[in-house]
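hey so u asked for the seq, here:
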Amino acid sequence: MLGTISYLTFQHITEQKYSDQMELSMNAIGRNLNNMIKEANYFSDFWVTTEDSVESVEQALGAGVQSTGGKQDKSKETESGDYEELLEKQKLTGRVLLTYPGIKSVTLYHIDGKVVNLRFVVDEPIPRDVLESNPIYPEVLKKNGAPVWIGPNEDARLTGANNLFTQIRVLLDIDTLQPKGVLVMRFGMTELARTFNFYNTEGDGDRRYLIVGRGGVVVYDSAGKNEGRSFAETDPDGRLDLSRNFQTQKMKFDGEKSLVSVHNLGDIKRLGTGDWTLVTVTDWGYLSGDLASILRYVVMITIGCLACALVFNLMFVRRTISFIVSVVGAMRKVERGDLTTRVPVTGNDETVILAKGFNSLVERVSELLSDVTMEQRRKRKAEMMLLQAQIKPHFLFNALESINILAVQNEGRKVSKMVQRLGNIFRISITQKEEITIEQELEHLRSYLEIQKFRFEELFEYTIEVPPALMGHSILKLTIQPLVENSIQHGFEGIDYSGKITVSAALEDEKIVFYVEDNGIGISDERLASFASSGVTTLEQLYEESPETGERRGMGVGNVADRLRIHYGANYGLMLCSAPGQGTIIKCVIPSETGGGEREIKGAVGG
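ran it, structure tokens below
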């Protein structure tokens, strides 16, 4: 970034300074061109207005005229006329060359149709019909003696085979100012090359000058490459405005990156030229030579700085950053639950203290989580043992007493059913699995309800409505039975009407939901609030006995809620809806998983 900013800054400064310098140079060149054309005009003015010059032209014209009144021999007259014409032309040539050596030819198209041509180089005059049919001829006549210039390559029909600067003007009689003919003069303009060479001494080969004439045609190119071509070919995007007084643009010129400056020669137009524009093309490599050296130094300094920074990074920063990255990676593993992660302890700086502290912290957290997990296992086992002990002595005694009565009454079939139901209760209670199928849980529930119905006779009726599709799903054992027991022991206590218990289940949002409804006495707001805040989960509360019966009360609902939350997670458990005298509805939510095998113990970490 430092190198780029430095290069662009120097580049802009150089371009601006060179542009200012070039504007001054092009103004000076423009003045030189103006003086050169003005000098040629002065010569032309002197030659066509001086009496001696006009007479010389007239003598040259008259020398070739044959006499119509004499009777001399035609061949003699012709020879005499040619000789005299030759002498007059030599005299005129001497005068012309002494006055202005840059002139190459003079052609006079007399009004009476005669043509006189003086040539100092091999040059053919313009045919009269070609001259008079040219679009520039009306402009010449309109100016009535003022010169009109045609630059090389502007019109090859007028500039001749040598492609010279050509001046055309009307020749006037100096006494009457009436047109006598049209004068065409061609000039070599050697001063043009000398002028450009003078301003190109330092940038020889790297700077070139062009003059763009009528229609955007390149009249002159110091390099001789684009003469006769349209300037638009070198500027296809039209980025240069040839009519502006001065403009500089960095662009591609003839495939080379260059700085192009244009200067419209407005002052020279009043001397008879067309809308000429001076163009200077400078190779950008020539201008940016010093900048390239500076840029190389900047690049070398930058590379040195980067090398030092790299060494510093390798020696100091990289080690620290690598350690921080490893610690962050270890923290993410711990966050995902991998407490076996440790950070390697290397070196003898501050990172060693940080690594040891992190490892010690993770190790301590792992120990604490192990303790919590063990405590949760013990708590769950204790809860399961307490629930399995729900077959209270009084319940077992009353069940056996009922069986004895049936045996005395010789009701063998009923005795068999009662013993079978009691056996089902014992079998489910003492099983080692934490989860059983819903079908097994409901079989356990039916056995319990049938025994209770025999004990309490017409106290209640029950209905179990569970879809067959849910029978194969798993459930934590001894989940539904404590909820129903809560309805029998508390909901129907002291009622004078027939109680009713309904157990139903459904699949809702990929969760299995059980509803245990009764029409008992309901639950007071105080007890509902107590259940919502803490429930009945402590061992003292679970073993609290009724002073009248000695039976344990308050078991079940709070205990089942905590067991479900610990076993399945915070999204599962119980919801109670009740009011005094309105009955109770208990909603039990469990995940919809099939099978009745052992589940992994969770809750200490995940719960």
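The CA atoms of residues 134 and 603 lie 108 Å apart. Confidence is low (pLDDT under 50) at residues 60-78, 535-555, 596-607.
lmk if thats what u needed
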